[in-house]
Design a protein that fits this description.
Elements: H1 6-27, H2 34-41, H3 45-51, H4 55-70, H5 79-91, H6 96-108, H7 113-129, H8 136-155, H9 161-172
Length: 176
Amino acid sequence: MPRVSDEHLANRRRQILDAAANCFARNGFHRTSMQDIVRESGLSAGLIYRYFTGKDDMIIAIVEDWHGNRAGLARAADPLAGYLDVLRAIAAPRAEHQRSLSMQAWAETVREPRIRDLARQGVDDQRAAFADAAPDGLVRVLVAIYQGLLLQSSWDEDLDVDAFVDSVRQLVEGRA
């Protein structure tokens, strides 16, 4: 039997994670069954289990992907501008799916130690990345602002994101 390419394997894994993320965003982690993910992906259960042992492994993979995508923030030429862009992006209407998944993942930190470790790693990565640019306390406050904006933008359709982000900029620049 011919061996499939690494690209094919990565694409199949992505297909499964995208299907799982869609189900999780729509129904929550606990109300989503493996059968829901099978239906959403169009793949067989056996194939899905070749990639993941269950839903928790998929949640962890999704959170790991987020960390990888955010890693470039600290390397930006202007870290503050990069951070403000992240705030705008998470509060954008098109980010509703990610906000739902993020809040559910944070809720899982109290139940699943591997997810808690990933959440902690995300905060610690930001603390380390900005260690030379900002005091640790400020980095923690910026993480909390991100988390708070994610929550507020999930339930407050009247939130003025531009005013929020401008206020954060003023706070960080010491003008508030």
